[in-house]
Amino acid sequence: MTAHPTVRARWQARTRAEQASAHTMELLAARFEALVPERAGVATALRRTAADERRHQGLCAEVVTRLGGDAEAGGPLPGLPPAEGEARGALMEHVVFLLCAGEAIAAAMLRVAAGAATAPGVTELLRGIAADEARHAALGWVALDAALDGLSAEARREAAPRLSRQVLRAVVAARAVGAAGPDGAAWGLLEGARAVEVAKQAVEAAVIPELVARGLWAPPGAAP
Ligand SMILES: [Fe+2]
Ligand SMILES: [Fe+2]
């Protein structure tokens, strides 16, 4: 099937992003196991998340092959994202950036992209992945609550601005989505500007209210 080279490159990038996500989830599961050993069920769920990401990688690679591209993901794998706190504090930041915000944003972007796709099978594929990413976002709140458990009111207050900054970082990360090319929408791709718009909406609707409910929303510039 023919499509603009941009479409193929973006699906290759999607494949690599899923591969990277699988790796990051494994790292997060190990970190969680080490720091919150009393909640082994959450670490197990994080490992299942990594398995989902590997499945997504395979599904995206099939699209790359359909587009005549090289589906080999390859490339260096990322470590855990930057954090300001230490130990359990950093773990909570990772959970917010990767799962609570990152997965909520991914799910929203995939749902919007699925709605506009017309290439055969792409809408169904993206809806399926979006449903998984939404589950991963929900797991994020379970993981965050497990990591928060037993933390003093003061430690929570201290963590709040760092967690809030991770939400803002997740929105900024959506800017990395580049141009989609002339037939990008048909192939389930969002333009960069639209991606940021969708990311902002997702965070306002589904992430900030959850942090507010936990007394953890303290964005820069807000009164203490
Ligand atoms: Fe995924
Ligand atoms: Fe995910």
Question: What does this protein structure show overall?
Answer:
The chain has 224 residues and is mainly α. It has one domain (5-213): Ferritin, core subunit, four-helix bundle (Ferritin, Up-down Bundle). It is built from 6 helices and no strands. The model has no long low-confidence stretch (mean pLDDT 93). The protein binds fe (ii) ion (2 copies). Residues 21, 53, 103, 132-133, 136 line the site of one fe (ii) ion.
In short, what is this structure?
By secondary structure, this protein is an all-alpha fold. Helix content is 70%, strand content 0%. It has a single domain, classed as Up-down Bundle (Ferritin), CATH 1.20.1260.
- What molecules are bound to this protein? fe (ii) ion
CATH superfamily: Ferritin, core subunit, four-helix bundle
Q: Per CATH, which architecture? A: Up-down Bundle
**Helix share, percent:** over 70%
What coarse outline follows from CA principal-axis ratios?
globular
Mean residue pLDDT: 93
Total strands? 0
Please summarize the sheet with the most strands: none
> What do we call the CATH topology?
Ferritin
**Secondary-structure element order, N to C:** HHHHHH
- Alpha-carbon distance between the two ends: 56 Å
The CATH class name reads Mainly Alpha
Helix segment tally:
6
Helix/strand structural class: mainly alpha
Q: In percent, how much strand structure appears in the residues?
A: under 5%
